[in-house]
Amino acid sequence: MLLPNVVQTAVEQFRDEGYAIVRGFFQGPELEELQRKTAELREIALQHPVTYKHGNLTYEILPEEYFGKRYVIQAYWFAWADKYFDSFRSNAKYLQLLEPLIGNNVKQVTQQIHWKPPGAKLTGYRFHQDLRFRESRESYEDVVRDTVTMGLAIDRATPENGCLKIVPRSHTLGYLGLSDNGDGQLMKGVTQDDELVGVGIQPSQVIDVVLEPGDLVVWGLMTVHGSLPNESQLERAFAISSYVRGDTSQRGEWTFKDGVPQPLGDTPQLCKNEKLFNNLEPHYDATKWFL
Ligand SMILES: O=C(O)CCC(=O)C(=O)O
Ligand SMILES: [Fe+2]
After folding, report:
1. Interhelix angle 92-102/4-17, nearest 10 degrees
2. Domains in the chain with CATH codes
3. In this structure, which residue's CA is closest to atom 10 in ligand 1?
4. Residue 239 Cα, ligand 1 centroid: separation in angstroms?
5. Which of 145, 146, 233, 247 has the fewest C-beta atoms lying within 10 Å of its C-beta?
C-alpha cells in the first residue's frame, strides 16, 4: 500500500500542477506480473491481422500490408480478455489515490495499454487535453472535476522511447482546442512549437515525464500532454486508466462501490465509445486512419 504522505503529496501536486508522479507504485512481483501479462496480451492481440473489436475490447493493429510488419499499438478494455486485468483496474492502490479526489464510488471510463514498438511509425500523440475524448458531456455532472487519469509505466519511459510530456499548470487554462484541427487524428504528425505558442504555452514549459517501470503519473482532462514517437530500440508499454466519480457519471464500468472492488458484469457499459451498442459482436475494423 502507499504511505499516507505519498498519497497526500500526490493529491496536492495534482491539484496545484494538473499532474503528479508516484514513484514505485508497482514493485517486485506485482510489477513482474504486470509485465508478463502485458507481454501475453500483446501476443494475443498480434494474432489479428487488422484492428479487432468486441464490445469495448479493442486491439489496434498496424497491418503488415502498410507497415512491412504487423504491430499492435493499443489495447482497450482488455479486462474482458483476461481476469488479471479486471482485478488490475481495481487495485487497492488506485483507490488510495482516487478516494481523496473523487470518493470511493468509482467508475472507469478508459482502460488502455499503449505500446510504441521500435520501428513502428505513428507512435506519437500530438499535444491535447483529454476532454476532447469525452463526447457525451451531458452524461456527467462535471466531467472535468470528477475525472482522474493514471498512467503506469510498464517499461522505462524516456524522451528517446516516447515518454509522456506534460505542461505543468496547463489545467487552469481552459479548453485550448489543441490538435482539434483537420481530422483530429492524434497519432499523425507532431505538434509544432507555434501551435503551443498560439494557445499561450511556451515550448520550454513542456516537461518530460521520465518514468522507471512501476512509476505512475496522474493527470486530468484539462492537462495539456502528448508524446513523440519511439525513436529508440526500447519498448514503451504504458497502462492508462481513467476513472470518474461513480454517482455523478452515466458512463464507465463500476470499479469500486463504497471502496469495494467491482468485477465487470455480463455486458459492457457505455464508456468512451458512444457507438458501442451499434455492434456488440466480434469484428474487424480495417479503417485506414493511418494513410
Ligand atoms: O501514450 C501516450 O504517450 C499518450 C496517450 C494519450 O495522451 C491519450 O491516450 O490520451
Ligand atoms: Fe491524452
Report:
1. 50
2. 4-260 (2.60.120.620)
3. 130
4. 10
5. 233
